[in-house]
Structure formats: C-alpha cells, structure tokens
Amino acid sequence: MSGKTVSRRLFLKGTGTLAGSSAFRLSMPGLLALSEAVCTARDAQAAFDVLSDGEARALDAIAARILPTTDTPGARDAGVIYFMDKALGSFMSDELESIRAGLSEFESGLAASFAELAEADQDAYLSTQDRSHFFNRVRFMTLAGFLGMTSHGGNRDQVGWKLLGFDGHRGAWQPPFGYYDAEYMREQQDDD
Amino acid sequence: MNSKMTTESPVTFPTREAVDFVIVGSGSAGGILAKKLSTAGFDVVVLEQGKYRKPEDFTHDEISVLYLDELQGGGPKIQQQTFRRDESAVATVSQWGNPAWYAQTVGGSSAHFSGNFWRCRESDFKERSLLGPISGTNFADWPISYEEIEPYYTRVDWEIGVSGAPGPFDSPRSKPFPVPPIPIKSSGVLLERGASKLGLHAQVEPLAILSQPHNGRAACINCGYCMDFGCEVGAKSSTLAAMIPLAEASGRCEIRAECAAFRIDTDANSRATEVLYYDPDGNEQSQKAKAVVVSANGAETARLLLNSASERHPDGLANSSGFVGRNLMFNSHSLALATFEHPLNEYKGVQVTRMVHDFYESDPSRGFYGGGGIDARSLFGATPIRFADIGLPPGTPRWGAAFKDTLESNFNHQLTITNSATSLAQDSNNITLDPTHKDAWGRPSIRVTYRDHADDLGMAEFLQDRAMEILDAAGTRQSWRFPISGQQGGAHLLGTCRMGNDPESSVVDKYHRTHDVPNLFLCDGSSLVTSGRGQPTMTIMALAFRAAEHISAAAKANNI
Predict the structure, then answer these.
(1) The Cα angle at residue B191 between residues B185 and B196, in degrees rounded to 5
(2) Alpha-carbon distance B41 to B195, whole Å?
(3) A-chain residues within 8 Å CB-CB of B193?
C-alpha cells in the first residue's frame, strides 16, 4: 500500500475492523440530519482526503498511545485517524503543513518509523516529545476525534462517549439527574 | 402591513429613506429595544453582523461551537481581535480565542449565555458613596438607583422569562418570579450541603430559562447545552426567543442579518444621519435614520464610535469626554473543581441551580474592595473534549492508560464551583482600534488592553478559598483549584461607554442618550458604571427596557 490510493477499507484491515453504523437516538431534526451524514461518510471507501498512508499510520500510532486500547476502547477503536484526516482536509487545513513538518521532525529522532516500534518503546519515545506543539495538536485531535460528534468522522459508535458514561446527545432529560439530587428529592418527599 | 407571526422579516425598508430608528445589534439590549420601539409604532431596522439562526439551527456540536467558534463569528481567524496587558506592549492576535468574547447571531450573546440572572442590589448603584474613592480607578456611583431600575428588572422577569425563588439577601422585588425554579442538580445539592454546614446560605439561582411554558414559549427539556450553545427549543430566554418574534410581528421591524456596521455619519449639526455597513456580499451600504441606537456590546459599540471619527469628532463619535472604550470590566473569576463518590451526571440540565451570595457586599476587613457570588455548575459536563483537555485534576498524566482511566472515572463525578466577582473601572483597561490588524470585513480590529486590578484578583482568590471550604464541607473526594492568573479575555464587556450626569466623565446620560449627539443612543454592557458581581445580562436587559421607554417618549414628544 502506498500513497493516497489506499482506501479506508484497506487501511482498516491493518488496524482493526470496521464497525457498522450505530443507531442514533436523537430527538432534534438538525442532529438527525447530521447523524445521517455521518453514516454516509463512515461507509465511504474513498482514500484519505489529505494524509498519506505513512502519515496516517504514524498519527494513528501516536493517537493509540494517547488513548490506548485497554480493556476499554481507545483512539483506534474510535477511528480517530479518520477524524484527523477529515479535519486536516477541512477546518484544520491551515495546520496541515505544520502537522506534516512536526511529524517529520518527530520521526527524525527514530531509527524506524514510530508505528513500527513496540508499544513500550513508543511510550518511552513519546514521553520525551510530549511537550512539543506537534504533540499538543495531535493530542487535541485525538481528544476531538474520540469525544466529538460522530459527524466529524471519529468517535465511531460513540465509543468515546460510552467510555465516559456520556449520553448527552439524547437531547432531553427528566430529574433526578444524579445520585445527590435523587437523594435530595427523597428527603424532600419524606419531609412532606 | 403584515402582522402575522413569521420567522422572516415581514417588512423591508428602503435604505435611502430615513427610518425612525436604526439599531446596531440584536442582542440582550438591541433585541429588547427593537421589540419595544417597533411595537410602539416606530419603523426600525436592526443591523446584526451575525447570521439569522433559528432555534432549530442550534446543535450540540462541541467542535463547531467551542473550537470553530461557530456562534462567535468564526473566532480569531475572522475577527483578528488583538490583546495586550499594557499600553506599552504591541497587541497580538490571540490564538486561543477572541479576547472580547460574544456571539454573532441574531439574539447576540443572549443566544449562547448560561442564563444566570442576578439583579444588582441597592448597594451596587451607590458603592462609591458607601465606600469612598479608590485611588487610580474610575470607581463611581451610577446616575440611577435600584428603586429606579426595579420596575424594569420585573419586566425582564415577566417579559423575557426568569425562573427562580427569592433569596435571603435579595433587594426588594415588586412582583414574584413568573415561573418556579428549574429542578435542582447534584451540584446544587452539594453546594447547599457544604454551605449549610459552614453557616452560609445557598439559594436558588435565578435563571433566564423557563421551567414551565410562559408567554407562549416552551419549557426547558434539561438537555444540558445552555452555556456557549443555542437553545433548540427556545426555553432559554434569549432575545431571539423572547423579543425578536414580537418585534417582527409588529410589521415595523426589519432584522437585517449578516450586515456589519462600520461607521455612523453625522451632519453639521452633530446629528447622526446614517449608519454605514457591509451587506452579506461585503458591499458597502448605508441606512438613513432619524435616530440611531447602538447596542452592539461593550467592545463593538466602542469600536463603532471610535471608527466614526471625523473632522468634527476627531477622537471618535460621542467621545468628547475621552471615555469611549475606557473602563472595560470583564468581572473577575476563579474556579474550584471537585470529585464526589457518587455520580452527579452534570451533563444533564442547566448549568447552575444554586448559588451563595454571603460574600456579595464589599467588606473593608478583607483588605481590598470587592464582592461576588459562588455557584456550583457543570462547566465541563456536556463538553467532553474540553473536559478531557483541561478539566482533570493537576498531576493527571496527559496521555496513556492512566489518563484514559481518569477520564472514565471522573467525568460523571465532577463539578465546578465558579466564582464571579467585581472588576474595578480603570483607564488602562480599554477597547481601542488596532493600528495594524483588520477583521475580515476590513474594519480596524478590536484591540483589548486588560490587566485585572489587584483587588479584583484578591476577591477572586478570597472566593476560591471559600469554595474550597464549601467543597470540603460537602464531602469531596478530591478538590483542586484552577490557578488565578490575569484574564486575557472576557464574555462580560462592561463599562466602555458609561452612563453619568457629567459629560466630562461619561458618554451617555441616565437615559442612554449620548452627551454629544442628540439623536444617538447607546445601550448595552458599555453603559454600566460598575461591574455588578458577575452576571450582568439581567441588568443590561433592565436598562434596555428602561431606555426604550424613555427613547420612545422622547420620539413621540418630537424631542430627539
């Protein structure tokens, strides 16, 4: 595989499996339209918009150490790399060259490419690089791709939100909301 | 005339014939003035530089709203606002966001605010007399009293829609709240619990959010996206929800969105004649008017006046005092965060349900001027990216398995105490025209110069200390402080065209008419003389109701 001809589907074979589209439970028409747009984007088999295969593998590997897959899903499971590609091809396009230059400098300190290193070696190297502007921007993209709305290309099946216990996009709630207000309501009723 | 309720402006006025009023800005003040003046029978054109978004256009998209500044006119890339600490420094474009933080959309910042609606107290309007002068500042009494503004606070309660219940320290109110409090959240319960143990008095947060249907509008569905986001059901009492539809239904109000004012022209008699603006295609237009009201916020109003300099008004329009742009006040702030044993699920419901106002009054025994309020809120609850980026306890690894574990364990167990307090009016904190940078329309950029007064920082720290004690008393598992550093921006844009009786030291009179230009009125956060304690919109809206009444009466008496 080389260059930009690699398809999303092929890339995924190297890193995980493509999960199906999730069911959305949304009450607002605007959000529903967005969720439909997302399903389309995720199933597309187009090449990455802006990242080369090598760039994608490296950024994916860094993201996977920022939010590793453990007994719970991590950046890779959320498809963070697709968010990064989409963001750097659109609303973060003015950062693309800076990210490219940062990645090149990041990898220049290594004999092999970062993605080929063992995880322990990746962590050891990353801990020497984690104050750089490049790292901070990759970290931000990782968080945004893990926890942003799925319409931006990441947070596949809302795995990021599920990890946090966040289902805020359902749209409407009735009290009690949490443990302490539920307790408070019971006390008030006992007082009455 | 078309008088039926519609979502499009039902009337279009020709630009070359003078309408009764042009209002610049459709936000907290502009939306109210548009409604009041149009329903009083005047023809009104509202110039709003933001888009005309409707409730159904608002989303919960954190990336678009928080990081792409969707509601803030596109943020630094578009606005090119600059910031510096002191006048000796060269201001630079801030990368983290606009220093003057406000929404560009019909409804203005009332569309994206959290809705905390504190009234000022009787003391706020006469603190200079009560406490004496503070050297190096422009600390002053207001030209109006609480008694004079109280009827208009009540109009805000009922016409805009405020939920709440009386608190132990409130100044007198002439009518009860129109709708009861929003349901309490776990953060409110814990604040109340901690405060009670310390002998403090937690009280219901008054909110510009409807707990029940009111004035034909729907009640809050507790979606969790008030702060920074627009309300998709219209339960948040923005002027977009509460006023603009009524203004348009009058058949006399045209909302001209995506029209960015850049200059007010005057004639030889120093009367405003027209407002020049860029239309949605970027072309220059101008709207003639018999009178002009600027309600563009404390940053934009000052910029527009300074950018309207002419031979007759060399320092900017209505600026014979030199006070246009001066005395910028953001309100000072501090934060304390905490985790608790059981889930709070703060992403559900409004931001704030309880507050503590025991430290509202300035107390000389503290050693500095100031007062403020303490509230418990979600802050990071509905915005998981911001939570993950900056919301975790100090010492948490910034990446790796331990970082991810903390995200998981803390998200639904955290709350934030937000302290809001006074800012002192100072010459050195101001809005000016940037000499080099321009915004996307070609207007000189807003340049913000700001350094918090030592007393402002002292009050912020004092409240943070009290917040930490409250969290301890509430049984926190872990609590921590956000470091207090000088603010590099603010959402409260106050004081930059202050009202006063003396034309030497104020820009508008007590009825919001500029001292220099008889048919030019300014009404927004810029009118405030002192900062209040940190939730200024209630007062801005009350001033707008009051201003509208006086402006309308003056126009009917042919006295403009």
Answers:
(1) 130
(2) 50
(3) 180
Residue B509 lies in a domain: no
Whether residue A75 contacts residue A142, with contact meaning beta carbons closer than 8 Å, is answered with yes
Prediction pTM value: 0.93
Choose, out of B189, B409, B415, the residue to mutate when testing the contact with A (most A CBs < 10 Å). Answer: B189
Q: What is the pLDDT of residues B246-302, one digit of tens each?
A: 999 999 999 999 999 999 999 999 999 999 999 999 999 999 999 999 999 999 999
Q: Please give the structure tokens belonging to residue B151.
A: 């009827």
B291 three-class SS: strand
Residue B454's SS3 state is helix
Q: Sign (positive/negative) of CA torsion A7, A13, A15, A20?
A: positive
Q: Specify the amino acid at residue A19.
A: A
CB spacing of B186 vs A148 below 8 angstroms: no
Q: Reduced to 3 states, what is the DSSP secondary structure of residue B156? A: helix
Containing domain of residue B190, as a range? Answer: 179-206+332-421+453-486
- Which residue ranges of chain B lie beneath pLDDT 50? 1-7
Is there a contact between B296 and B496 (Cβ–Cβ < 8 Å)? no
Q: Which residues of B touch A161 (CB under 8 A)?
A: 384
Residue at B417 is within a domain: yes
Quote the Cα angle for B57-B236-A182, to 5°: 115
CATH number of the CATH domain containing B338 = 3.30.410
d(CA B434, CA B302): 12
Q: What is the C-alpha to C-alpha distance for residues A64 and B212, in angstroms, rounded to an integer? A: 46
- Quote the number of domains for chain B: 1
Tokens of B248: 């348009």
Per-position DSSP letters for A11-65, written without gaps between them:
HHHHH---PPPPPP----HHHHHHHHHHHHHHH--PBPSS--HHHHHHHHHHHHH
Token representation of residue A83? 């968010």
